[in-house]
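Protein details
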Amino acid sequence: MTRAFDLYRDVTQRGISAIDDFILRRESEGLYLDFKRAVTQPGVRGLDDRDANNLGKAISGFANSDGGIIIWGVDCRAQRDGADVAGAKCPITDTAHFRSLLEACVGRLTAPSHNGVVSSAITIGSGPEGFVVTLIPPSDNPPVQWLSDSRYYMRAGSSFHPMMHAVLAGMFGRRPPPRLSITVSRSGVALDTGDGMQAMAEISVRNEGLGIADGVFVTIGDIVCPEHCRVDVLRCDDERLGAAYKHNNLHSVISHPTFRLPPAASLAVLNITITLKLGQWMFGDMRMMIGAGASNGMPVHKEWSVPGTVFDAAIGLHARKLAKPDAIADKALGLTTP
């Protein structure tokens, strides 16, 4: 997943607390983040031209770059140093209505239209008032033109800028790039080790883009685990993979030079074995940073973490045989609700 998607997921999952944090920290607009006040009035049949213009330019700019999100309903204020920061909440009266207007006009704002744009409402309590978050992924078919002024934009810093001729010319005729995502899934069931248990996860990548991925690689680093927990990393047994490399706390595998990952295809790359000891409390969490990429695509990152309390629960289920081995393994890997 891209940084834009990770940011969108974090904001939509945390809801109002994420909005409050942005304002409390006076979060600056940046490469992936834009704040906008919504001026469209409730009950109208179409999006206000000012909101439509902001959306159209953002679709062009984020789509031609690495993607980004717009948070509607936040007032952005310029500082003395020129930075635009989240200043105050300006909630949208009817988030469901505003969201539907956004989605209705996406297809007519740019050429080509961007069907990857999605919006989610964050309501205040159980009422209709709140905020809307719009995700604009990078386009698989750039360049994307904003039809209102027939220009092509890109994101640079905290602003959208018209693309220079040389950059724009290079985008025409370019092959669509691959776009990788990372998946952590269970491999096998929980196993008894005599004095504890083991659970195994499989790290795989999937090509979500329209282009073929060359030189696919996966890295795992920054591994932290509590006492009485051990993490082992092994390369999957697949002839499509090259050799595995380890340096200090970094593990990496790259695909065989002749292998290419087509669109909608997946490749299992690494196996992670987590060993837990019975009768020991897990003080602290297990976490690691997983990276993936291709020689002709943008890298993506995903943090995988399992709280120590989840390990404790899994060990308890295993010791008392209170669940099936596959459910216990899911619990130990943090793949079920704690």
Residues 49-63 form the longest helix (15 residues). The chain has two domains: 3-171, 180-332. The domain at 3-171 is CATH 3.30.950.30 (Methyltransferase, Cobalt-precorrin-4 Transmethylase; Domain 2). The longest strand covers residues 196-207.
